[in-house]
Hints:
The chain is of the alpha/beta class and about 240 residues long. It has a single domain, classed as Phenylalanine Hydroxylase (Orthogonal Bundle), CATH 1.10.800.10. The protein contains 11 helices and 6 strands. Strand 5, helix 10 and strand 6 form a beta-alpha-beta unit. About 35% of the residues are buried.
Amino acid sequence: MQDMSKYTKEDLWVWKTLFDRQVENIPGKASQAYIDALNHMSPVLNADEIPCFVHINRWFETETKWELKVVPGLIPVEEFFQLLAERKFCSSTWLRSKDSLDYLEEPDMFHDIFGHVPLLSNPVFSEFVYKFGKLGCQFIDDKDKLLQLQRLYWFTIEFGVIKEEDKIQSYGAGILSSFGETNQIHQQKANFLTYSIDEIIQKVFRTDIMQEDYYVISSFDILFESLKELSEVWSKEPSQV
Length: 241
């Protein structure tokens, strides 16, 4: 569980510095849905205090029913899908150091909370994440399909972009928790491809570089509907276990 007493003044400085910098950076670059969600969560998610998971979970009780689940770091993909299917989102409780504001080998609390959590209060997006977890559980013993779902997660929930008012805006947590990647998208220094779930689930990705390819959606409904279609197709296929 999260021990709030262990956070230091330096932790608070890191959190506030990262939070304030991104809040100033993302207008005109982040999806309006994300910005609205971040503002909506401001009573329990803001720059002035380390996020308290107990308070956030209590807030979600009257919203989309999600719950933060403390994990020590990266967990097995099977466990990850099972938690999503219970509307539980994994988060670490540690924060990067002052010397590592812009690069981490694995996600910290700023990535998990600032990047992922706000959109879990968006009804359509949160339902997509939940159904994503349910689909993973349905095919939990099919390694090929789990790999394909990991690719879908990468190019949507982590590094997704959306077209709003003829502008490409970011909604993926990997982008919105990264100052550099947010600006790369805004400067159009990448390849922006038409969203295709069939293409995405076959696409290999790298975790050690800024992304070169991003898939553009026109609304969160596209994510939800494409996942539903994928589920229907897979359910008709013979088992590959």
